[in-house]
Amino acid sequence: MVPEPELDDPGIDVAAIIAEEAEAARRKAAIEAGRRRAGTAGAAMAGIMLAISDIYEPKNRDEVAVVAEAPSDPVDIDADGIGVTLDDVDVWAPPVERTDGWGDDGAVL
After folding, report:
1. What are phi and psi of 62, to 5 degrees?
2. What's the chain's Rg over C-alpha atoms?
3. Is the pTM of this model over 0.90?
4. Residue 85: φ, ψ to 5°
């Protein structure tokens, strides 16, 4: 016989369990409503719609912001150009000339 965990056990997230049970009850109710309205095909369609909503509308997850330290201040490539070294080859590109956004023929660049 497996001993049941106590509810005040720090390894058990009671709020998460309650939320999962509520979500399962909501899904079951949606499938049952589909079954009442259109039989087995309606239940299947409700299940498919729930699966598709899980794929395209994932649950909100807390995302951690990634912070990276740079060895120096950022370079203004619009004013200074850009230079990189790839496999012992130095590559440098000059800054691009500023335009007002219109070409010589009046077209938008």
Report:
1. -70, 125
2. 29
3. no
4. -120, 125
3 state SS of 31: helix
Rounded to whole angstroms, the Cα distance separating 44 from 57 reads: 19
109 residues of the chain, pLDDT tens digit each: 556 656 566 678 888 889 889 988 998 998 899 899 999 999 999 999 988 988 888 777 667 778 878 777 777 887 888 888 888 899 988 888 776 666 666 566 5
Spell 21-60 as b/e; 16+ CB within 10 A means b: eeeeeeeeeebeebbeeeeeebbeebeeeeeeeeeeeeee
